[in-house]
């Protein structure tokens, strides 16, 4: 892989120290040993643990990295033995693994709810870029994480930075609903890879890329994320009793579920095609929950683990279309995409939309709103106010150092960085200390 000279260029130059590691290996190790990576152990994946061993962002990330690496290794090996062995150079398992370790670094407290609230609050406060977890991950490795006093961030290679960009665009303006391209505009408004404040690092990462699509290595990382989330989280909630799969497969119940979520499975299909897909997905559930139901026994645990393992084995069977005009494209079989979508909709319907989770979300929303308002007010009051506040006990040293002369949008971005850097427990503790009279924000 030594021919990827430009891809392995670092934004702030190379160290002169001798190092036996390959560039992607060095990137992977730099991410692994950051405080920001360790913080993921305290960040919600879907639900805050309540007695069940639900995944957190750290365990999820480790599984994404493992799946991503195995896919990359398989594709690299296949291409190396194929008719175009030079293509194998475009798939570096170390780079893919490093990108997977990066992909969730930017998640704020309380999972996606925290992400949506910070976006709303930051835009309301005057920063049009708001907040986006993927953009925050990119910001962490290019600016906020510490590796050396000689440069900001971790000084990763262009290849790894590019592979971490699931969305290879900056934030687009809010879409005009009357514009014929409103759909694409909305996608690029809602999901983007970097803030304008980090545009120089984004330009470095994308230098030399002639198409708008994410790199093949980024596509592998993204697919691994889908695989890990849709299987391991599904297993969590099935074992906790939140997914009544044995009831869902009853013909009438399944028909209602499929009709409700049909737009996510297919668009514009014929009635015959709809029937085929409905039967196919119901068979997936019957196979997954063949006992039926989970009774907590060791045998049932082994059964569900075996089924999930089988699904992962199927989901990683992908290939590459090297002739796509928009650049190399990861090819995921339709049956795999459908099944992953089914698992995601199950989690949405029975977990995320569950009444008990709704109450928890409202409490977390109030915590994020209060903390952002308090942090922004403190930052705007100047460095001495921040250093003398309770926030100083929770703010990473690098963010404290950046709070020299904040004003305007800079203050909003700094407030976002501070709140986003907290773990779930830190957010709860800080809220309780700052708001002692009303510890429960409900």
TrEMBL record:
Ranges for domain HD come to 57-230
Hydrolase listed as a keyword: yes
What are the UniProt keywords, alphabetically?
Answer: Hydrolase
PANTHER family noted in UniProt: DEOXYGUANOSINETRIPHOSPHATE TRIPHOSPHOHYDROLASE, DEOXYNUCLEOSIDE TRIPHOSPHATE TRIPHOSPHOHYDROLASE
**Which InterPro entries does the record associate with it?**
dGTPase, dGTPase-like, HD/PDEase_dom, HD_domain, PHydrolase_assoc_dom
Name the source's superkingdom. Answer: Bacteria
Q: Name one Pfam family in it.
A: HD_assoc
Extract the ranges annotated as region (Disordered): 1-28
User: What PROSITE patterns does the record tag this protein with?
Assistant: HD
Picking any one GO biological process from the record gives: dGTP catabolic process
Q: What is its EC number?
A: 3.1.5.1
Q: What species is this protein from?
A: Deinococcus soli (ex Cha et al. 2016)
Q: Which residues cross the membrane?
A: none
Name a GO molecular-function annotation: dGTPase activity
What's the protein name?
A: DGTPase
The answer, when asked if Hydrolase is one of the entry's keywords, is yes
